[in-house]
Each structure stands twice: as structure tokens, then as C-alpha cells.
Amino acid sequence: MTTHTIAVLSDSHGNGTAMRAVLADAEKFNVDEIWSLGDIAFGGPSSEDCYQLLSEVNTTQYLKGNWESAYNMFTDTKKINLDDPTQVYYAMLVAYDYDRFGPERDKQLHELPMTGRKEMDGLTISLTHNLPNINRGHTLFPVEAQENFDAITPDEDVDIAIYAHTHTPLWRYTSSEQMVLNPGSVGQSWFTRQKFLADRDASYLLLTLADGKVMDVHFRRVLFSWETEIQIAKDRHFPYVSVYQHLLETGNASTHNAEVLGKINDAHNYRQTVIDFLKELEEK
């Protein structure tokens, strides 16, 4: 019997230290290929590193996460509310990574698909970042209604639906008993229960198939050094280092904390930095 093992990962959010740890762990299991379900970039100092690391292994699927969508929209429309601290935060992250992406990476992000579909070992597998037609929102958080998860598969032919976005590992079924899996997050693990949230290790999924059977579903937790990751952020002059450190240490994000972000924006004059970046985009 020939088995086929896939490493399914998502949501590294620019955390290169965690990505390296996950790929090293997957190598120990001699995985045949890797599927990336989006949000590889943005949030940490090493978005380009994360994409480069995936290009160096047999990554056969990439998807567009909500952060890649935000990047594309911002660089295309060049529109932002400069009075909204959260939007300035987003724009600063885009500006930071834009300066490190080359034209080919920018092109790749703009061409990422929303969905993927695999026919493998007699099984049909659908791949999404969130729902098939929308890659953001809270619709598929683990405690949401069954009807939400019934909407994750594009048709009844799908045997396994794998999605990401929520940063929480999950295994459940649709009402038609289609398997639903979520690998969790490489870079920013998330749980609502505080005792589980205390586990800050990276997470991903090993899926082993053979002869039309799901032989194994293995949720992996991988230790990485957040201290190393923060030092990289400092060395690379990543904006919002304090916010990033708080996230990696505690799991609590400040993405929508206008007070915290506003103070940082004012202290570093990030509003003007974003204005200058917009002018740069307009001139290209």
C-alpha cells in the first residue's frame, strides 16, 4: 500500500521563526507535498522569508488569505482612512512588506486563488481560507452553528473540506458527514479558552491518505522561540514590535485596539509614513 502524506499549514503571518520550525518538523515525516491555505504574509517581520521557505519545498497549493486580499486591495486602490489607527496599522504593515517583496512576489500575491480542489487517493478535497466565496469573518470559528460548516463545501462530491483563518485546530463534520479540518496557525496560535491559549506553539496538520482511506489526521504542535522572533523584528526595524511581542507572548492581538495603536502611530509619526508610501505607489 502506497501512502500519501500532506503537510497542511496556514496563517504564519510573517513569523519566519515559526515557519522554519514547522517545515523542519514536517521534513521528519517525509511529507510528499505541502498545502498553504493563506495569510502567510503580514503581521510579523518575515513575510518574504515565509514565502521563500515555502518555495524551497514541494508546496503544491497556495491560497489567498484575508491579509493577502487586504494587501492587494490597498496597493491597487491606494485608499485608506488616515484617521483610523487600525487602518494606519494595516497600511504600515503593507508598506513594510511591500519594500521587501520584489515584483514577482507582488505578482504572486495578486494571483493567489481563493479556493483549491484536490482529487487524491480516491478522495475529493476542497481547500479554502475561510468560506469558498469569502476569506474573512467569524463564520467558521469553532463554536459557530452547524449550518455555517455545512456551507464550507462547494458540493456534495467533496469528502474532506480543509480551511484555516481561525488559528484554532479543528476536526468536525458537516451534516452530510463530510470531514472538516483546520490546521490551526503556524505563527499565531489562538484559542478562546485561556488555559489552551497559554500554549503558544506553532500548529499545523499532517494528513495521510491511501487507497481511498484517511489513514491518519495528525495535529502537530511545534515549539519555536518567540524571543528569537522578537529579536529578528527588532533587528529588521519592524513597526509595532511591542504589539507583536504582546501577541506572541499572550496570544492577545491589538489589531483593533485604537487606543494602543493610536499612541504608537503618534509616537512614530506613522501617519506621515503612510502618506509618503501612498505617494510612492501613485508614482509607480
UniProtKB/TrEMBL annotation:
Location of the Calcineurin-like phosphoesterase domain: 6-195
MF annotations from Gene Ontology: phosphatase activity
A Pfam match: Metallophos_2
InterPro entries: Ap4A_hydrolase, Calcineurin-like_PHP_lpxH, Metallo-depent_PP-like, Pesterase_MJ0912
GO cellular component, one term: cytoplasm
Family: Belongs to the metallophosphoesterase superfamily. YfcE family.
Name of the molecule in the record: Diadenosine tetraphosphatase
Annotated source species: Secundilactobacillus paracollinoides
Species lineage: Bacteria, Bacillati, Bacillota, Bacilli, Lactobacillales
